[in-house]
Design a protein that fits this description.
By secondary structure, the chain is mainly alpha-helical. It contains 14 helices and two strands, in the order H-H-H-H-H-H-H-E-E-H-H-H-H-H-H-H. The chain has a two-stranded antiparallel sheet.
Length: 445
Amino acid sequence: MSATSAPAVDTPSPPRPDPARVRPRLRVALTALALFSLLVGANLGTPLFPVLEGRLGIGPFGVALAFSSYIAALIVGLLVFRRFADSVNRRTVLVTALVVAAAATASLAFAPSLVWFCIGRAAQGAAIACATGTASGALRILMPSRPAFAARLTLLASSGGVAAGPVVGGALSLVGGDPVAAPFLTIAAVLAALVPVILLVAPRTACGPANGSAHGSEAIPLADAPPELGVPSGRIPLSRAPAGRTPAAVRAFRIAAATGFLSFTVFGFCLSLAPSHFAAIAATDSRFAIGLLSAVTLGASALTQLVPFRGGWRMPTGLSVLAVSLVGLGIAGWVGGVPLLVAASGLAGVGQGVAFQAAFTAATTAVAPQHHVSTVSAVYTVTYLGSALPVLGLGALAELVGLGTAVAIFAVLVAAACAALAAVAGRRGTVPNGRGLGGQRSIRR
């Protein structure tokens, strides 16, 4: 460069727009709708499983396997996606998930075998694994001053989609034509239609990762890490996690994880083997009625998310209610009482919703936004295990002793586990209080 030449000046790149200021309300609604629709599509098949048993030539274990293939892919996807979830563009992830889910849902309409059906379900699980944490992170960033509400909205959209899936599937199966093809093809079209809308509404530059780098593989996100540990936002490095005596923060995380596992065990039952069991109790083969009965627990849980409960009482109380309701579900199978079945199912949903809201809200509001997606993925990884493993065991047991007896044994065992966990959570006082960043970290010492 000559002495008279002008020095080079770096042109600053234009600042990225604040994601919370680019059509925030519309994007919040669209993000919640996308998450809701994805979960509806994943749970359409619940009232159709009795039909699919005959069409695919499968029994209770085959139904459990078809359901668990979705959960297995979901868990693997959460584990894999968590490593880079906080560092990718949210719009790209959500659009990709919608495309994959639409194709997978459409393929289920023509599944000629259990293997085909399981592959389609696995593709749905992988798509939702990516979308769940991403949608939750987007809601958190779009509502920066309301992290607890963003967490509840995530739960409402996801649990609402799970609850609506069986009802929508049962209703669409009555439209006419093939009772299996109509529900899957209709929701596949809805998922595909959301793609261009998201591309038009959400600018890609406003959907980049949150400021800061993700370190999901270097830390365990905890809901209530006590401040004396000296780590920010409730994140305890793996090297600090003790191998022997467990601190109060680690106990709180483990109780929250166990709560999610047990509460989603009930969800897994409602979405897989419950339709056949409920149909026998109600003496009906109406797919719409079966879908409604299967959705009572799921709907009650979703409605619970509308109420912002507070306090450390939530987890032990919710688990206790869930334990009592499970005993009612087991008894309903023997006495054949539809009113008892409906009441116990609704109570189970309320208990599950209260307990899991406490665990989920505390876990997500206690971490900084740049770690939010990986935290949600970690929470759901544990909880979705509860949807798969016990259901596989229930399906295998039903092949040996019959579905009614197997459900009664299942209900008693899960109820006992919920009661034991409620006692542990209440006695040790390690229940997350859900106040979020900067709040009191435990209800008592």
